[in-house]
Amino acid sequence: MSARERWTLIAAVLGSSIVFVDSSVVTVALPRIGRELPTTVLGVLEGQLYVYTGYLLTLSALLVLAGALSDYYGRRRIFLIGLVGFGLTSVLCGVAPNMEFLVLSRVLQGAAGAILVPGSLALLTANFSGEAQGRAYGVWAAATAATTILGPFIGGILVDTISWRVAFLINVPLVIVAVWATLQHVPESRNERATGHFDWLGAAVVAIAVGGLSFGATYGQQRDWRDPLAYVVLAAGVVATIAFPFLMARSREPLVPLDLFRSRNFTVTNISTFLIYGALYVSFYYLALFLQGVLGYSAAAAGLAGIPGGLLLVLLSTRFGALSARYGPKIFMTVGPLLMAIGVLWFARVPATSPAWVFMPGNPSTWVPPGQYFIDFLPAQIIFGFGLALMVAPLTTALMTSVPVRNSGVASAVNNAISRVGPQLAGAVIFVAITASFYSGMAARLPGTDTSDPSFRTRYPPLTITEPCLTSGTPTPCPPEVIARVEAVRQQSTEAFHLAMYVAAALLFAGALVNAVGISNDVALAAAKREPAPAA
């Protein structure tokens, strides 16, 4: 690997990693932010909600626009703008004097992040070819996984030992290194055919489509679908999504050329991304709820429980990326989701009586050995993690080799948008199904109880046991009727968790089938042999 390739890879990895870190770190910082930051307009809980969703909204909504801009105006130039913007907005987040200022800064930070994710992959596509390109995609995937896994853990340490502000300010030195590497070593490249007017109307429509679907699904789920704003935003997203392809077909210089979808691998990869990433969201979300809310795992233990599978992704992604460039991505994209489905089905056999693993770094006297974790969860994590490692880098290889280099930015952006919108939509639909299943089961287990009563639903949400008498240090035992309700919640929550795992497994099997039938190795291998785009 030449110095140019090495520093291009470093810049791309740093650029994407800080975006994923700030997607995850803020979740552990929110409680401290709510306690320390004053509010003038927003309530504390509402402010915390917008600190999280405001970032995701602009990040998701502007992905396709950012990818198209990088192809049109130059990938190096737009990537640098994203880096500088992310660094500046990270500083604004870190010095925020109140909640409203932090929310605004997070919205702007998400806009800068939208430039970096597709831009990083576009840089790799333009500067690598063959097996080197596959390895680069693997390193990118491994770094993304590492930051996603370690982000909350490292962020929690920073928040607990120093300040939540450090979780944002730590981005600045990483941005400085990435900017230097980009300026010194990354050549400029762009779509040499982009000579007309940029499609700003298409950019606005796709922003409404992606942002409306993503934010509407997230907001609706967080508000238990009781706020009409969620339906209004979703409707706007649906209308814009339907209108978008017709607008692209009529445009002389479309933001997203519809010719991209004539590529079999591009279309199939995006369909499988929708299915597989929907399954990832469902399995991760409900597994975290089940471990802590039902089985009683401590937060630290629940975080550590997912590390074995994540480590496999980190360690093996580069290798499988190179192999997919050599032999074609089809077998990896088929076997990977199948193994992931087997791992998810292993989770579906875990009983409500599986003993908790309690690990609290600040209080060693409360530690409980892992025990049953090694039987109920570790095998599933290993199988799932190996399947994920098989799939991620080859999927990226199949996607980025399915389109001309000149369209690499917008192609990456479309796939990234699907990987964000798909999980939110799948999660929203499955949330409704899980909630309905949980309360219908509770009605059967507790005859005479009105499970539709909002007060009952607030006290007994799915996959969460909240009875105060069950918390440690309570001096009085739970009354018998409370114990009966708790046991009903535990059993029904376990059934709801199993249902979620079955749905996730079905999505993974469907993704594997789509890849097995649709992916062409010949197209991917021929495209991988092309030379990188020349520097402008």
User: Over the alpha carbons, how many angstroms does the gyration radius reach?
Assistant: 23 Å
What is the fourth-level CATH superfamily of the largest domain?
A: MFS general substrate transporter like domains
Per DSSP, what share of the residues sits in E-state strands of 2 or more residues? under 5%
The coarse overall form would be globular
What is the CATH topology classification name of the largest domain?
Answer: Growth Hormone, Chain: A
Number of DSSP E strands: 0
Poorly predicted regions? none
The first-to-last residue Cα distance is 21 Å
Number of domains: 2
Overall mean pLDDT stands at 82
Q: At CATH's second level, what is the architecture of the largest domain?
A: Up-down Bundle
Major sheet? none
* CATH class category of the largest domain: Mainly Alpha
Sequence-ordered SSE layout with sheet pairings:
Layout: H1 3-36, H2 44-61, H3 63-73, H4 75-94, H5 99-127, H6 130-161, H7 166-169, H8 171-185, H9 200-222, H10 228-250, H11 264-294, H12 299-305, H13 307-327, H14 330-347, H15 373-376, H16 378-400, H17 408-445, H18 454-459, H19 480-518, H20 521-528
Helix pairs in contact: 1-2, 1-5, 1-6, 1-8, 2-5, 2-9, 3-4, 3-5, 3-17, 4-5, 4-8, 5-6, 5-17, 6-13, 6-16, 9-10, 9-17, 11-16, 11-17, 11-19, 13-16, 14-16, 14-19, 17-19
Describe this structure in words.
The protein has 536 residues and is mostly helical. It has two domains: 1-187, Up-down Bundle (Growth Hormone, Chain: A), CATH 1.20.1250.20; 259-425 and 500-536, MFS general substrate transporter like domains (Growth Hormone, Chain: A, Up-down Bundle). Helix content is 75%, strand content 0%. The chain has 20 helices and no strands. It has helices at residues 3-36, 44-61, 63-73, 75-94, 99-127, 130-161, 166-169, 171-185, 200-222, 228-250, 264-294, 299-305, 307-327, 330-347, 373-376, 378-400, 408-445, 454-459, 480-518, 521-528. Helix 11 packs parallel to helix 17. The longest helix is centred in the C-terminal third of the chain and has 39 residues, at 480-518. 54% of the residues are buried. The model has no long low-confidence stretch (mean pLDDT 82).
